[in-house]
Structures are given as C-alpha cells and as structure tokens.
Amino acid sequence: MFSSNLQELLQPLLKLKLNSLQKTIIKKKESHEKYLHGSFLLLFFRFRIMKYKYILFDLDRTLWDFQANSFQTFKEMYETFNLGKLCNTSFDEFYLQYKTINALLWDMYRQGTLLKEVLYVKRFSLTLEYFGVMDCSDLSRKLGDFYVLEGPKKTCLVDGARELLDYLMAKNYHMYIVSNGFKEVQNEKIKTSNIDYYFKKVYLSENIGYQKPNRKIFDAIVSDLEALSNECLMIGDDFAVDIVGAKNAGIDQIYYNPEAIKQEFLPTFEVKNLREIMNIL
Ligand SMILES: [Mg+2]
Questions:
Q1: Which class is domain 52-65+157-279?
Q2: Cα 242 to ligand 1 centroid, rounded to whole Å
Q3: Could you say which of 1.50.10.20, 3.20.20.70, 1.10.10.10, 1.10.150.240 is the CATH number of the domain covering 66-153?
Q4: How do residues 104-120 score in pLDDT, each as one tens digit?
Q5: Share above pLDDT 70 across residues of the chain, in percent, rounded to a whole number
Q6: Distance of CA 55 to the CA centre of its chain
Q7: Which of 179, 197, 236, 249 would bridge with 215, disulfide CB 3.0–4.6 Å?
Q8: How far is it, in rounded angstroms, from Cα 232 to Cα 250?
Q9: Whole-angstrom Cα distance, residue 145 to residue 88?
Q10: Residue 275 above 60 pLDDT?
Q11: What's the 46 CA to ligand 1 centre distance in angstroms?
Q12: How far, in Å, from the CA of 6 to the mean position of ligand 1?
C-alpha cells in the first residue's frame, strides 16, 4: 500500500527526470551533429585550399613594380640624354607618349607581328618622331640599350609582395615565375630585387615558344611540373593575359586588380592588395 503510494508520488518526478534526460540526449546529439557538420565544412574548405601545390606568378606589375621602376629609369634617361631640350617637351608628356606607343607595339609583339629587336628600338624612334626628332635611329638604339641595361637594376616591388612570398614559402608552396618579358631583363630583375630564392624555376615565354595568354604555355608548364592543372594557381595583374590564359588551360586564378577594373567574367579569386592572398592560401 505504502509502496504503491510512493510509486504514484514518484511517477511525475520520474517522468520529469526522463524528459530532462531525453532533452539532454537530443541536445548532445544536435551539438554533435553540428560539430560533425562543422568539421566536414572545415575539411572541405581545407581540401579546397590545400589542393593548390604550384603557385604561378606573373612578374611585371604583379611582384616587380614595373610602374615605379620604369618611371625611375625614364627619369634617368630623360636627364642623361637631355631629352627635354631635344624634344622640347616635359618629362610627363614624353613618358606618356612613350607608354602609349610601347603598349601598341607590345600588342603587335604578342600577336607575333613584330620582332623583339624591332620593338626594342621602334618604341623610342616613334616617340622621338612624335616630338619632331627625325633621323633618330642611332639615338633610339642608345635609348633602347639604356632602358634594357638600367631598367632591370631597379628593385621596387609591389606593395606586400615580399610579405606574401615569405608567407607562401613558409607554407611550402612551390612557386614559379611565368612571364612574357624578355629573357635579357627578367632574370636580372628577379635577381637584383632579391626574390630569386623564392622560386623553383622561371618560365619565360621566349624559352617555351608561346606567350601568355596562349594556353600552350600553361600546358607546357603543367607538363614540366608533372602536375595536374587543378593543382596549379596563377596569380597575375593582366586579365587578358594571365587570367584568361590560365582559365583556358583549366588553371584557377587570382586576379590582382588594385584598381578594381570590371572584367568580362569572374576569376576564381580577386584581390586588391597582395596581402589578401594570405587569406586565400
Ligand atoms: Mg603583369
């Protein structure tokens, strides 16, 4: 009798305890599921990032500050050859005109319609002629030589470049340069600016026989590395050359786009500052 009363008394208490136990079990299960879900996401994320082993860097304007170095070289050239007096123009005007002419000639060189030797001199002779200096082949050659000799001695790097290279090196990424620039100057630029030790190899279009954005240069590099294209990642500032080329070869890309220029498609990643890449890799 007493036992039956006690059982009745305890029943609601037992029910309450059971409910609370069930709730605890459900909560633990949910939290465990959440944890597992989080772990899978983390694993997925890690896998996605860790899949890149080979980092392909463009050189000019991506690591080597072409703009600052070229500006410095031109200043020296302008003074040395007294171009202000000869062309009756300011440094800014002379440099602006040169850059316009040089860009047009580079397009022709990339398309294979202009020889490198012609480009070397023609960019200066056309600039001089624009400012009314005729019969200037000797001077143009001297300017061409000066630029090729003095330019690569400049050592300005793009903001955040060395920090990024240190970071990637510490994380054991295999790094390479892939450049369309001339072999006479690119190797010297890399050495003089003291970034050569970061790179396992320098791939120059002149040596490979194809220029970016031709996918054949990327295919040749992937094959030389004995890698898969999805293990490689191209980092570059020139959308039409670096990004389009890599994409066509099935290589993911980081578009270094400091001026936030709108482009025809979205690259795999896009950054305004090189340091942002440390959040990606
Ligand atoms: Mg570039």
A1: alpha beta
A2: 8
A3: 1.10.150.240
A4: 999 998 888 999 889 98
A5: 82
A6: 9
A7: 249
A8: 9
A9: 22
A10: yes
A11: 29
A12: 86
